[in-house]
Amino acid sequence: MINDRRPILVFGATGRQGGSVAKALLKARWPVRVLVLDPSDLASVALRDAGAELVHGSFADTDVIASAMRDVHGVFSVLPANLSAEEEVHYGTSIADLAAQSRIEHFIYSSGASVGDRLTGVPRFDAKPRIEAHIRALSITATIVRPMIFMEMLVRPGFGLDEGRLISLIRPDHSIQLTAVEDIGKIVAAMFADKPLFAGVTLKIASDRVTGHELEAAFTEVAGRTITYSRFPDEVLAANIDLAHMASSLEDGPLAEHVDLTAMRKLNPELLSLRSWLAGSGREALNRALSKVSE
User: What is the pLDDT of residues 66-116, one digit of tens each?
Assistant: First the structure.
């Protein structure tokens, strides 16, 4: 039962995760308030037209954010990937502090699935666990979600699809858990609708689990042409600390942990498999990635 339909303030609503959350909340008939840097850009206008209330400001505008949190039931906090580690920690903890000061009833922070029990010593890997620890120390009802690797990552440039192959982080017979970004919004909306169940919870989110062989089969089927799968060569991983960290985590770290997909479907009965995502909302991005193959 939705409390009294007071707004949810959504950060990052012109991006993928925040946009997914804003869309799902609006569909669930929550009033939605969003912080936007430019109210005139297309994504902001689309949010306004969908029924969201726009607040003009940036992560640095603490007075604006504090004002936007007035009379709000919940806050969804996600930060853009282009921030430095120091900026991410600063803004992530500042938003949480303002939510606690504003006595927000339910605060949901989107962290990362690669967060583990120990810090790595690498600032960009340790930013999210530092924000998590800060949130847990506050007097606020909070939920932390850790989405697994996005399906969208597989159709970005550089993964070989333009050459009829898919290169990723797992060995062909190993598995990877993937998340469709649109599923995040539906799961977060379900969390806001049941605060007592998710108070103090940290939960990993996933939509599907597939092996490298299954990645090859799914992409081949949906693309209608042969797509071969392989793991990034060891020399490529050795030269890229981010890819190496993720590949290692997928073998014996936090990214190797199994997410209960049955529990995910209870939160979101419309949970997307990789095949259904590729054939549906991911098809446009897949076609762009394949475009050079058909030229």
Answer: 999 999 999 999 999 999 999 999 999 999 999 999 999 999 999 999 898
pTM of the entire predicted model: 0.94
Domain ranges, residue 137: 1-147
Helix H or strand E encompassing 7 = none
Residue 117 lies in a domain: yes
Q: CA angle 98-22-270, nearest 5°?
A: 130
> What gap in Å lies between CA 134 and CA 182, rounded to an integer?
27
Q: What is the pLDDT of residues 232-261, one digit of tens each?
A: 999 999 999 888 988 999 999 999 999 999
- Please state, in angstroms and rounded to a whole number, the distance separating the CA atoms of residues 282 and 103: 38
Please indicate, yes or no, if residue 252 is contained in any of the structural domains.
no
Number of domains in the chain: 1
Instruction: Give me the CATH number covering residue 67.
Output: 3.40.50.720
**51 in helix, strand or coil?**
coil
Is residue 283 included in any domain, yes or no? no
